[in-house]
Amino acid sequence: MIFIANLAMSHDDLDLFKEMMADVKPIQNDTSELKKAFHSTDTHAAKRQAAMSLDKDDPDYLSVDHAPMKKPDDIVEFKRDGVQEGVYRKLRLGKYPIQAKLDLHRKTLEEARSEVVKFLKQCIHLDIRTVIIVHGKGEKSNPPALMKSYVSHWLEQIKDVQCAHSAQRHHGGSGAVYVLLRKSAEKKSENRERHQKRMG
What is the pTM of this model? Predict the structure, then answer.
């Protein structure tokens, strides 16, 4: 409630106003709670940023509560900055040999999230770089394309995923997605050593 004082009020009115306002305390301009709220948000954002690597054990950052919804026939397409256009095109056209496959049919969202994290961790550990995840089109799910929408959203959040694109028809079309993973640290180190030997 907002009180507005009439500057032309009579003496009696002023006394009445003071009496009414006697137990009202002025608002303190204290920003400590505000700072705390901002600090909490910053910490949460930092935690979420750190959690984007599959090296972290906590998959909570992959939400099962919200994802931008897609349609059953929508194409999933995502490329991280720095990925060469030629590499992305080759993935999109299904030109890379598929080294591993994950099928999420008949899984709940929670099960799918756990499976995706476990699968991608194993692939990176084994230096498997090109995989396919079969999520289905979800034409009969409620809402439609539920699993597809969440898988697409999760892949964009995982920084170990370089790029992703809906599969070619012979690999499942818009019911599956190709995923290109980053090179493992060990493989990068091996490549560096091999390159140095060639140069030396």
Answer: 0.68
